[in-house]
């Protein structure tokens, strides 16, 4: 099977660039933007040699996993563009729900789950059984005319997951999913078209925020957030209108714009 776009994505003007293997789909997307690509371009591969995650961390994509980057070139302000990471998380969760058979019961634990098969961990992970299944990375560059080239990178552990990481990880194959990266991407391109329609240039952010909270991992549970070398502990209350992570600590409300979130025993013992 080859990569292809859903009819809804094609109708909305999205295009596809598929590779057998790449260094980084985000890097390719930003290179296309530097060469005046108009955006709405999906760059996809089943193998990525030099992928990266948040804060410069490596993101491995062995043969059979999904590396997908959506390039958008618009006159966004950066604060608004950042909310598209939450749109991407919802799109991926919707795609997973669409293609993973119901007989594969993913009971989320360790993250304060409420029975959802796939949950969203702030700011950019998708979890299954409390383990990381996918990650999302946004990178941007400025283009002439005050336009922003935004690369929304989505990496999914389809057939394999890393073993030597300091957090639980899993893959769709480990969960019993018999499908492939191409099947998941087809559903993702469809789900993105629907969720970005709801987002509606930011006008629908209230709906996106509520849909995200409905799938949020750890909501109402004890968390520890590492912020600039310090650890803040409290109860995960919500995300606010700007998608900041909101916790209650000793009666105070603390809003966090960027950090690493830990649940369960790690939150109690201290975030590594």
From TrEMBL:
GO terms for molecular function: biotin--[biotin carboxyl-carrier protein] ligase activity. The keyword Ligase applies. It holds the Pfam family BPL_C. Residues 1-200 form the BPL/LPL catalytic domain. The keyword Ligase applies. Its EC number is 6.3.4.15. Gene3D superfamilies: 2.30.30.100, Bira Bifunctional Protein, Domain 2. PROSITE patterns: BPL_LPL_CATALYTIC (PS51733). It comes from the Bacteria. Keywords: Biotin, Ligase. This is biotin--[biotin carboxyl-carrier protein] ligase. The lineage of its organism: Bacteria, Pseudomonadati, Pseudomonadota, Alphaproteobacteria, Hyphomicrobiales.
């Amino acid at each position: 099977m080859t990569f292809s776009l859903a009819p809804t994505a094609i109708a909305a003007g999205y295009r596809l660039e598929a590779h057998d293997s790449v260094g980084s789909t985000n890097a390719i997307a930003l290179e296309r933007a530097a060469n005046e690509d108009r955006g709405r371009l999906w760059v996809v591969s089943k193998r990525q040699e030099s992928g990266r995650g948040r804060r410069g961390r490596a993101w491995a994509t062995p043969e059979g996993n999904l590396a997908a980057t959506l390039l958008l070139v618009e006159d966004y302000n950066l604060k608004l563009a950042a909310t598209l990471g939450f749109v991407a998380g919802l799109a991926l969760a919707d795609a997973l729900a669409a293609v993973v058979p119901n007989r594969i019961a993913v009971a989320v634990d360790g993250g304060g789950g409420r029975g959802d098969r796939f949950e969203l961990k702030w700011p950019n992970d998708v979890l299954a059984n409390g383990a990381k299944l996918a990650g999302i990375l946004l990178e941007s560059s400025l283009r002439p005319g005050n336009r922003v080239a935004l690369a929304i990178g989505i990496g999914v552990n389809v057939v394999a997951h890393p073993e030597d990481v300091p957090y639980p990880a899993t893959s769709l194959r480990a969960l019993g999913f018999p499908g492939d990266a191409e099947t998941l991407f087809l559903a993702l391109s469809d789900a993105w078209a629907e969720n970005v329609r709801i987002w509606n240039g930011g006008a629908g952010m209230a709906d996106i925020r509520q849909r995200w909270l409905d799938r949020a991992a750890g909501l109402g549970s004890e968390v520890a957030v590492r912020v600039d070398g310090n650890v803040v502990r409290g109860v995960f209350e919500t995300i606010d209108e700007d998608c900041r992570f909101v916790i209650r600590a000793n009666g105070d409300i603390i809003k966090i714009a960027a950090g690493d979130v830990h649940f369960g025993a790690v939150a109690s013992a201290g975030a590594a």
